[in-house]
């Protein structure tokens, strides 16, 4: 740890010797860093000293004058290479703005340890690393408070609008904190004064000057408007004093015009809550209960135990078993005869099918008909359904991009798939994709290695895992080629042969 001492006990290799060879008093380095551009200045000095392999104990970063003249900082780079990680640079860019007088010494010590590979001084589990992260966190919080609590006052100006503000930060954060205002208020001139520095943004150029006392700021007409807004968003029913003091510490109140309203708002809180209760309580209109009951009775009832596929399809229209129903247009039910020998299960409805409510309405359905017919099937004798009955997607540039259903959504929809399996009782189920395999077998691992395999499903029947024509309906329909079609037809042909030999 750096100290303001002029000499220390050391061995003969550490002493600076005169021409006579006699030991002289050790003189340490004492860099003086500017108030502006502090990070760049510290980085340059640290790089020079590190290149000359100057240990942390030989540097006094305090900036205070000592009893003896310090040794001059080397002007030329030394023989030792200095390489640092991005994590160290990012951390140091925050720590240098902390007001802790030992921040530079801590950073250089971390840099020294990184070069010697002495542990991990950037880790939260390291004593030094923990201290550095706390310093950086405090700086980040101070910058956040600056962005939240700076209040500009408009100044008289014949041309470009001019504003001024006063802020009292805990750390030296005006320089890094002002970049936010440069982007937000690039169309006006402004000044932010602090006790240490003053930032001036004029004509799109930022400059920093010596700080001082709070300047006289004129009354601003917008203050009254802001106070009115603040008073109206205040919710007297949700007063949490500790949370308010944490987010808006009282040390900032003196420079915030809206805080003068807080005492009166707190005093009137109970009365305002009582008025809110009175205003919120209202009796229903005459006949409202009758209309509500009539409307609910008109809604299609969900059959808890459907007796056939038709009843199950009607019940599925009111499905609310998972959140997919909230974005999808409607439930899309399976299609095909109730006595089908083959059931094909894909992942979920597609975009067009979600809009029309008809499964296989689109390119995917046309491709599936063509390929199964090519394998020897009569498509009208196949039952086709999905593992999930609602279309899952994310909106992007006016389009709906399909998303794969997750395991929880698949498991919620087993209620409907199990009904279809029970009513149709197929001799073979063809699983097209990951979601159908999870739904039918509960194991979606290593599907590529299991392609073409016949396994036993949860329902006790046989399931064939297919991969060429997967349940990714948009991709499967649009990426067709000769090799793809041959492979898909071969898989469907295997299913066809299975049904012929397993009567």
Overall description:
The chain has 503 residues and is an alpha/beta fold. It is built from 19 helices and 12 strands. The strands form 3 sheets. It has a 5-stranded mixed sheet, with helices on one face. A hairpin with a 5-residue loop joins strand 11 and strand 12. Helix 4 packs across helix 5. The longest helix has 23 residues. The protein is flat, with a radius of gyration of 37 Å. The N and C termini lie far apart (85 Å). The N terminus is likely disordered.
Q: What does the average pLDDT come to?
A: 84
- Classify the beta-strand content into a percent band: 5-15%
Q: What separation lies between the terminal Cα atoms? A: 85 Å
Structural class: alpha/beta
Q: Shape, please?
A: flat
Question: Helix share of residues?
Answer: 40-55%
- Mind telling me the C-alpha Rg? 37 Å
Biggest sheet features:
5 strands, mixed
- By DSSP, the count of extended strands is 12
- Give unreliable regions as ranges: 1-25, 474-480
Strand order of the largest sheet: 1-2-3-4-5
List the helices and strands and how they pair.
Layout: H1 38-51, H2 86-95, H3 103-116, H4 127-149, E1 153-155, E2 162-166, H5 174-184, E3 189-193, E4 197-202, E5 205-210, H6 221-233, H7 241-247, H8 262-267, H9 269-280, H10 288-298, H11 309-316, E6 342-346, H12 351-356, H13 363-374, E7 382-386, E8 393-396, E9 399-402, H14 407-412, H15 414-424, E10 428-432, H16 434-441, H17 447-450, E11 454-456, E12 462-466, H18 473-478, H19 482-501
Parallel strand pairs: 2-3, 6-7, 6-10, 10-12
Antiparallel strand pairs: 1-2, 3-4, 4-5, 8-9, 11-12
Helix pairs in contact: 2-4, 3-4, 4-5
């Amino acid at each position: 740890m750096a100290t303001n001492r002029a000499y220390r006990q050391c061995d003969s290799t550490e002493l600076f010797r005169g021409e006579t060879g006699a030991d002289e008093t050790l003189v340490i380095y004492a860099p003086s860093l500017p108030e502006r551009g502090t990070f760049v200045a510290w980085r340059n000095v640290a790089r020079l000293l590190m290149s000359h392999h100057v240990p942390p104990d030989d540097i006094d970063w305090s900036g205070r004058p000592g009893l003896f003249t310090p040794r001059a900082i080397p002007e030329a780079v030394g023989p030792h290479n200095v390489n640092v990680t991005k994590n160290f640079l990012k951390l140091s860019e925050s720590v240098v703005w902390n007001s802790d007088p030992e921040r530079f010494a801590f950073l250089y010590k971390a840099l020294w340890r990184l070069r010697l590979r002495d542990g991990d001084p950037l880790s939260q589990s390291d004593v030094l690393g923990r201290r550095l992260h706390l310093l950086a966190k405090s700086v980040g919080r101070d910058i956040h408070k600056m962005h939240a609590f700076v209040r500009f006052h408009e100044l008289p100006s014949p041309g470009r609008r001019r504003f001024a503000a006063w802020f009292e930060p805990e750390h030296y954060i005006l320089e890094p904190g002002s970049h936010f205002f440069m982007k937000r208020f690039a169309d006006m001139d402004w000044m932010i004064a602090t006790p240490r520095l003053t930032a001036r943004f004029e004509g799109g150029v930022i400059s920093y000057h010596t700080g001082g006392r709070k300047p006289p700021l004129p009354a601003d007409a917008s203050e009254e408007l802001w106070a009115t807004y603040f008073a109206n968003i205040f919710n007297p029913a949700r007063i949490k004093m500790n949370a308010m003091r944490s987010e808006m510490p009282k040390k900032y109140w003196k420079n915030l015009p809206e805080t003068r309203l807080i005492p009166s708002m707190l005093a009137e809180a109970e009365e305002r809550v009582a008025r809110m209760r009175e205003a919120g309580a209202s009796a229903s209109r005459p006949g409202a209960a009758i209309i509500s009951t009539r409307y609910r009775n008109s809604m299609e009832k969900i059959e808890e135990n459907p007796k056939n596929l038709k009843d199950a399809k009607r019940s599925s229209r009111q499905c609310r078993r998972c959140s997919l129903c909230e974005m999808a247009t409607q439930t899309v039910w399976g299609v095909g005869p109730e006595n089908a020998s083959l059931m094909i299960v894909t992942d979920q409805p597609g975009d067009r099918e979600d809009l029309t409510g008809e499964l296989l309405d689109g390119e995917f359905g046309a491709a599936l008909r063509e390929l199964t017919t090519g394998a020897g099937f009569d498509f009208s004798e196949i039952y086709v359904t999905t593992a999930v009955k609602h279309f899952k997607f994310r909106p992007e540039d006016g389009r709906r991009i399909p998303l794969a259903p997750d395991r929880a959504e698949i498991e919620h929809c087993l209620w409907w798939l199990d009904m279809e399996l029970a009513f149709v009782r197929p001799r073979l189920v063809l699983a097209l994709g990951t979601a159908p395999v999870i739904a039918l077998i509960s194991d979606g691992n290593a599907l590529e290695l299991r392609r073409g395999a016949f396994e036993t499903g949860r329902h006790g029947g046989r399931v064939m895992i297919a991969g060429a024509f997967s349940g990714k309906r948009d991709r499967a329909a649009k990426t067709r080629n000769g090799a793809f079609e041959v492979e898909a037809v071969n898989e469907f042909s295997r299913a066809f042969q299975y049904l012929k030999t397993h009567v």
